[in-house]
Here is the input.
Amino acid sequence: MSDSAHASGHSVANGERRIDFQTEPARYRHWKLAVDGDVATLTLDVDEKGGLFEGYELKLNSYDLGVDIELADALERLRFEHPQARVMVLRSGKARVFSAGANIRMLAGATHPHKVNFCKFTNETRNGIEDFSHSSGVATICAINGTAAGGGYELALAADHIVLVDDGSAAVSLPEVPLLAVLPGTGGLTRVSDKRKVRRDHADVFCTTEEGIKGKRAAEWRLVDEVVQGSKFDETILLRARELAAKSKRGGAGEGIRLPPLKRTVSDDAVEYGSLSVAFDRARRLATLTLRGPPGAPPASVDAMVSSGAAFWPLQLARELDDAILHIRFNELDTAAIVFKSSGDPAAVLAYDQFLDANEDHWLAREVRGLWKRVLKRIDVTSRSLVALIEPGSCFAGTLAEIAFASDRSYMLIGTRQGDNEPPASIALADVNFGRYPMPNGLTRLGCRFLANPSDLDAATAEREKMIDAEAAQNLGLITFALDDIDWDEVRVFLEERASFSPDALTGMEANLRFAGPETMESKIFARLTAWQNWIFQRPNAIGEEGALKRYGTGQKPVFDTRRV
Amino acid sequence: MSDSAHASGHSVANGERRIDFQTEPARYRHWKLAVDGDVATLTLDVDEKGGLFEGYELKLNSYDLGVDIELADALERLRFEHPQARVMVLRSGKARVFSAGANIRMLAGATHPHKVNFCKFTNETRNGIEDFSHSSGVATICAINGTAAGGGYELALAADHIVLVDDGSAAVSLPEVPLLAVLPGTGGLTRVSDKRKVRRDHADVFCTTEEGIKGKRAAEWRLVDEVVQGSKFDETILLRARELAAKSKRGGAGEGIRLPPLKRTVSDDAVEYGSLSVAFDRARRLATLTLRGPPGAPPASVDAMVSSGAAFWPLQLARELDDAILHIRFNELDTAAIVFKSSGDPAAVLAYDQFLDANEDHWLAREVRGLWKRVLKRIDVTSRSLVALIEPGSCFAGTLAEIAFASDRSYMLIGTRQGDNEPPASIALADVNFGRYPMPNGLTRLGCRFLANPSDLDAATAEREKMIDAEAAQNLGLITFALDDIDWDEVRVFLEERASFSPDALTGMEANLRFAGPETMESKIFARLTAWQNWIFQRPNAIGEEGALKRYGTGQKPVFDTRRV
Here is the structure.
């Protein structure tokens, strides 16, 4: 990548060379986060001049990735820094407009990979809003004070309760198909049909009506939950917030913990974090992530856990891992495979899992588990080949074993290496592997792995808390291949071969093979909707010189290849 | 479309201008259909020179659409002409090769729409094989005597029982990703993970290993059901056939009925069938299908039904409708919307549904219902905007009402038209609308429509066998809009607008909005897998001048854009 042009197709603003996912409320340019008692309010007031890239202005509360990075950060702040918050209100800081959605100039100028990655990240953030309600008990109310178009309405769709002002002009809309010849990029179609269960012919009308639907019909068609007069708007929002806060099961009274900026050392070929090392071998198109196990025993008490704050090992590692995965997704597009390694004592990892299990009702323990759940899901939907190398001295146990199960393949070394002092590799299972970390399809990774024979799952369950060596792990079906030192070169051959295949074909193949079994709204969004969207984003009718995305705003009508496919 | 080049990108062989889906066993060039007692054997022995298009040879039992049209026809023959068949054996007529899959030269030269339509049709045919087992009780055994690669193995995956010869070289494989940079096009990934429940890392190895998997490992990994020595191969197949025939619940002893060629009159702007008219308005990009209700009362007895044979009204109409839909899909790519109309007496349609219900255990009644189920599913996954116009004199009742529910929108005229003698439009529901015709997602169309409020489904259930006028239909949620004669012009405006939108965006939108609720293997194949495939089929890594599909067989390696998306 050159200094001036990022892989996104744009130049990153302010001379930055990479997209950084770290921010904090004091640096926000687009969102305001306020917590008043148990009501958190997130106000969208986009700074037009604050685009992440050069070349466009974020008018009418339209957004780009930078706006969404702040939203994702704000959600983490609410989880960890504001445990007293019991309801969240999403609103606009601008008059008569909620949000115009994803910025069209940004989309028109972005590369295909950036568009796809952008949509994936915004989807994850919206899923996070729903998970905040489901797992932490913090429901979201969306207060639509004007136009909520495209991604603006899709943000509202992530809320539990949508209130639309009835002023004769405020409307919700998904104008992507009629206006831009693309699909709503952030789960809109799926949430309309599967979450809000809008009747399919109404959905058809809605999604092909550029100006959207307003007033009473918006509520009748289930697009919003209530429509209120402008004079009653603020009081209705407040009333609903009080009601939902009263119903919240969140028990996190008291102070939260602070999430300081991650300590990172970024060099050309590596990113060093406290508990994680990332090394890039660009010639082989590999990113190797080495996760380090806990530095010692878990805290002696929940108070000690709270005191350790963001340095609490599982929290620190999860935040670092999340940052690393996003960095690779957006800034290291040429990476073919992510290789996961680990180093440390598997027993120490199990001890942390036991500590979190023992304190599962404590708000911080719950939020740490929730963060791991989301980071693991982020790995599940990352379009890179995922490989776990389980070698002597590694600690793929409990929560960390999930990373091996999230991988497309795992290789485990039998015994030790000549001249190496590390103990033979063991993996270990814990309760946490059997229910705490559902995949996007709702199954645990082991449950999905053993879909054919539930008895294999029973056999694995019986091995909890034991150290399992390579051959036993292979017999239990927990790894793909157990290899001795002499055959370990097969791993190199495999990684070379993988890098020689078509990146697109691998993306499609992995997206299909990773998620056997049931589908959820979430898996439909990532698998089905995303795939259609990827296709359409690639078609000349959208992105060609005469396509709708290119011609939007020029006054020229798009010219379409009229063949239906 | 010019005389020489069909919309597929190739010239249709023998100077034909359109792809015709009508054939019969005497004309087969690639399959042999033999029925011996209760065992039907379908033998694939592809005529290399018998390609549907000019420009390639069908070597090694590779196939193109023409081969699959014969397979689909053979299945219908077994359903209707051979009710005594209770098991089906799929085998190869060539030594040491089962099938090399879809012909690569054909794929490399085909247009994007043809590739997508080809895969959709082959998927429907394989789903039909599974449905033959599930609904008619005729299980399929696949006898793999050699190489079963790509689409060859995908055909095997549709069987209930796969037997692979163990001769040191016979193997099953899905080499699309490593060899061609595309995905297996006919449900392979989904059936590997969801039907055969192959463990995901094994599936990963399998789908990236060009030469495939043979012998014992193929069975251990669940890719085949049994592996047998060559000397035992034929007797094993026969034994399994006897076992499955003995278990079959098919009760269709005696003679079948003959399926004569459909009577069609094809002109430039129309296709006229006995019970169906198709009119093309190419300027407006519309195909209007007018379904005609029954000419009289249903037969007096099942014997009379059997005697009427292929002229039995619901059978005739279903065959004609199927042919028309396929014709539009493949030969009329510019059609933006399919407009469904009907003419006839709704009470007469209900009488036929009652007749079929009363005789639901008769083999022919079951097969007729089954054909309608499959034709309706074919409509569900047709990528054209679907519109039902319910006008005076129409007969959208019972089975025909499903077509309105399969449509993206329906418009119903209130009252009569000035100067028109036709009675006001009524629609009518029957038992058949509440369970007989599941969509690909497993729900009935009304169940899917009323996902939000099951009480709406109850209200509809209570109206069975009644004539429902436009306003009542709108109140019940059975139609999208009831309009009077003065407002009916809205339909014209809607159709014009629809034709102005991007065909791709509409395809993606409709694929997402039509299938709310659960997913099945079938819906995953059409929605998730197909979408990924469409995307990959469009990417330069596959179809570019340096892409794998173009370079296959040239000795030159493909050059890939290495960015992962």
